[in-house]
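Page 37, continued from 36.
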């Protein structure tokens, strides 16, 4: 395939630099906007092309030396060649651009991105794969394994667990979850310090003295438990039965955890539940907060509709995928006002971004 010179104009969500050649977007990994690179076109599609960098001819002042010997081959990190402040700026911009372009939102009330105190050695768990004696991560864009001795974005304890696994005589083929000893076995946030900042941010955003909190996609109740003091009643929903069992373990009387599909529970059962609460109080259910923290696929159309029908006074959307977040906010725009959008850097050196959006209902619901 041919090698071309390209001027990188932007870094797209996912981590690749974007250039234009003959009117077509060309994606080049491991590049930074402003750089002039020569790159080999490796895939040519109708709308865009993909290229691999061959040489950086004019490099960005934000370019730094990666700390990991596997960087560029391993599928995990995308930004080790970019200084940390600039990684933050890129991620902030990508969130704003997704909300404007996909979400069609005009004035996005963006707040500054919350950085990670640790730029390396932050991951409290990893999953490595073993096959035919090779233990490590998948090569970028492939299912081929690279043998990995150490992962610099993981905590020392996790790397010790990796060394111990590698020292074993016969490691069976399969997947191995390696974690710090404090980590529970159900879903948990991977970066402890940023998870704490995320929790604190949500505590700040949710007003006190409310009737009902619904924590949808609650896992083991990370947000529900942090917000207990502000509510009379708390309901968590997750379809992972182990996570729900963990949430129930130390639950107080006001907490209810439901093992079920959010889509079903929000549409079928929640209306009944919230009615029960309001009947008990002999008044209308006044203040309700809904926290949603879905997987990268975002909210289904039915969940979006259920949220509009439910019209919670406060809606907190925690997202790990700006494009699906933008799609969902577009649908919620009629019913809710966006108060603030706060990106968090839960995953330094990688292309992933966490975002918290604070929304308020525009009008009180007709009936509940
Ligand atoms: C990003 S995690 C959030 C977990 C939790 N909020 C936390 O911070 O620990 C997403 C969670 O959604 C759950 N989940 C995904 N799809 C679901 C669905 N349709 N119904 C219920 N739970 C779902 C997963 O089991 C997982 O625990």
């Amino acid at each position: 395939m041919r090698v071309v010179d390209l001027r990188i104009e932007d870094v797209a969500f996912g981590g690749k630099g974007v250039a234009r050649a003959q009117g077509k977007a060309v994606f080049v990994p491991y590049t930074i906007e402003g750089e002039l690179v020569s790159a080999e076109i490796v895939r040519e599609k109708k709308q865009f092309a993909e290229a691999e960098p061959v040489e950086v001819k004019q490099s960005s002042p934000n370019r730094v030396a990666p700390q990991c010997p596997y960087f560029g081959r391993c599928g995990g990190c995308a930004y080790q060649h970019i200084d940390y402040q600039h990684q933050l700026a890129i991620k902030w911009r990508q969130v704003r651009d997704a909300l404007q372009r996909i979400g069609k939102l005009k004035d996005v009330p963006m707040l500054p991105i919350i950085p990670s105190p640790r730029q390396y050695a932050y991951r409290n768990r990893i999953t490595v794969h073993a096959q035919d004696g090779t233990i490590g991560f998948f090569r970028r864009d492939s299912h081929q394994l690279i043998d990995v001795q150490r992962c610099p974005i993981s905590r020392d304890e996790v790397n010790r667990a990796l060394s111990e696994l590698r020292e074993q005589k016969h490691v069976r083929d399969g997947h191995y979850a390696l974690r710090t000893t404090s980590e529970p076995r159900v879903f948990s946030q991977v970066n402890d310090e940023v998870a704490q900042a995320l929790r604190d941010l949500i505590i700040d955003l949710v007003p006190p003295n409310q009737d009902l909190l619904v924590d949808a996609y609650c896992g083991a109740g990370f947000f529900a438990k942090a917000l207990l003091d502000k509510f009379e009643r708390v309901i968590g929903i997750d379809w992972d039965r182990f996570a729900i069992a963990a949430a129930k373990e130390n639950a107080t009387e006001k907490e209810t955890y439901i093992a079920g599909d959010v889509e079903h529970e929000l549409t079928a059962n929640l209306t009944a539940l919230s009615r029960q609460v309001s009947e008990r109080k002999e008044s209308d259910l006044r203040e309700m907060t809904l926290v949603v923290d879905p997987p990268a696929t975002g909210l289904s159309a039915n969940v979006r509709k259920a949220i509009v029908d439910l019209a919670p006074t406060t809606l907190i959307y925690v997202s790990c995928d700006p494009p699906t977040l933008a799609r969902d906010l577009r649908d919620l725009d009629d019913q809710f006002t966006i108060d603030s959008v706060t990106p968090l850097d839960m995953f330094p050196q990688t292309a992933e971004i966490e975002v918290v959006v604070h929304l308020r209902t525009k009008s009180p619901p007709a009936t509940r």
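The domain at 192-361 is CATH 3.40.50.150 (Rossmann fold). Flag for discussion at group meeting. The helical segments are 84-101, 156-167, 192-205, 222-226, 241-249, 262-280, 301-310, 322-332.
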